[in-house]
Design goal:
Elements lengths: L15 E2 L5 E8 L2 E10 L5 E10 L2 E2 L3 E4 L4 E4 L4 E8 L2 E7 L2 E6 L9 E5 L6 E5 L4 E5 L22
Antiparallel strand pairs: 1-2, 2-3, 3-4, 4-5, 4-10, 6-7, 7-8, 8-9, 11-12, 12-13
Length: 161
């Protein structure tokens, strides 16, 4: 067992986060609320799930085992894996090898809840404005380009990256 493996934990009980980040990756999405999927959760203005993170292979959701340590959160299948690490208090880096990860925003957008997905006019990066937290979440791809559904969709509709 490597030194970091002794710090493995159950992601259903302990969020994967970084000191001072105000965001985490967790199945805990609210007070006494635990989801089946891991979510990106913000703690700005309360505790709000922003995205549901769903492992997928060629556009189809697949079951994956999760493994969390102090340094990395991983989704693993027989065909590949996705790793998540905090690059700083302001960003999480994801890397997939043979497996993709879909970031699914809530289906309903109201003036007070949900998220609005758009491309930034300055650099064309995909951005989601979260109405619960008042924050924006930007996707920056270092290799390849993300597939996006629901850009500019108002009210009900699918929104994912």
């Amino acid at each position: 067992m490597g030194a970091i493996e002794q710090f493995a934990f159950d992601i259903a009980e302990v969020p994967f986060s970084y000191r001072g980040a105000w965001i985490d990756l967790s199945r805990v999405v609210g007070l006494h609320r635990v989801a089946d999927d891991i979510h990106l959760v913000t703690h700005t203005g309360g505790m709000h799930p922003v995205f549901r993170l769903v492992p997928h292979l060629q556009g189809t959701a697949v079951a994956a085992q999760t493994h969390a340590t102090a340094a990395t959160l991983a989704w693993r299948t027989e065909t590949g894996e996705v790793d998540a690490v905090f690059g700083s208090v302001r960003g999480i880096r994801f890397r997939g090898r043979g497996l993709g990860l879909r970031f699914v925003a809530g289906a309903d957008l109201t003036p007070f809840t949900g998220g609005y997905l758009f491309r930034d006019p300055l650099d064309s990066s995909v951005t989601l404005t979260s109405y619960e937290s008042g924050r924006r979440y930007r996707f920056t791809s270092l290799a390849g380009s993300p597939t996006v559904t629901g850009l500019g969709v108002l009210r009900q509709g699918d929104r994912w990256v």
